[in-house]
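Lab notebook, bench 4. The sequencing result for the construct came back, and we need a structural model before the next group meeting so we can plan mutations. Quick request posted to the team channel:

Model the 3D structure of this chain.
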Amino acid sequence: MFDFRTKLIMTVTLSTVCISGNLEYTAPLLAYSLVVFPFVLLLEKKKYKMCIKGLLAIVISIFLTKNFEEGMGILSLITLILGSIIRRMLPGIMMGYYAISTTTMSDLVAALKAWHFPDELIIPIAVMFRFFYSLQIDLQFINYGMKMYGITISNFFKDPIRYFEFKVVPLFMVASKTADDVSISAMSRGLVVGKERTSISNTRLKIIDYLMILGCGVVFVIFVRGRYA
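Done. Here's the predicted structure in token form:
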């Protein structure tokens, strides 16, 4: 739906506004709308599992902050801080997840090229994104293998050493090989500093992108005015 440049602006705006938290007092309706917005985008892309997890975390964090804000003990203070961190950081994280998971590598490189980013920055970003995507797939296979051995998250509390052995050790071994494979793949795709390369990506800013960027600008102005008024 959106160009990657628009998604990046949305992520930065949402993260800045939500982490500050002052919109909850100056424009509460706008603040709650911004919290819900990334989940609406995830639903539109049919990422139901991640959306449910995020909404559940938001509900729990709101419950914690509302029920422990008058507590005086250390446990109440820790719970209140944890709930506030989740509530303020999670919307930006979910928007970042949406931006990454719905953008192909070709569109990412083309969008950064259109912004005249230097190749010295584009290539590491492209390789890093591809690395984490490949590592996520490898982690899924590791989880499948653990289920075959009957090792689930509940085993972490029963036998943490065995869980660590079956989860983290293979992940470290796979990560090293994945890093080499991704670097070789980047070179074979023509990602070389100072060299022009062709792209089949037709990414461009559309009317909806300009409207969303304008909306982000309005939100940021309201945020600044409310913060320094």
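The first helix runs from residue 4 to 20.
Will bring this to the meeting.
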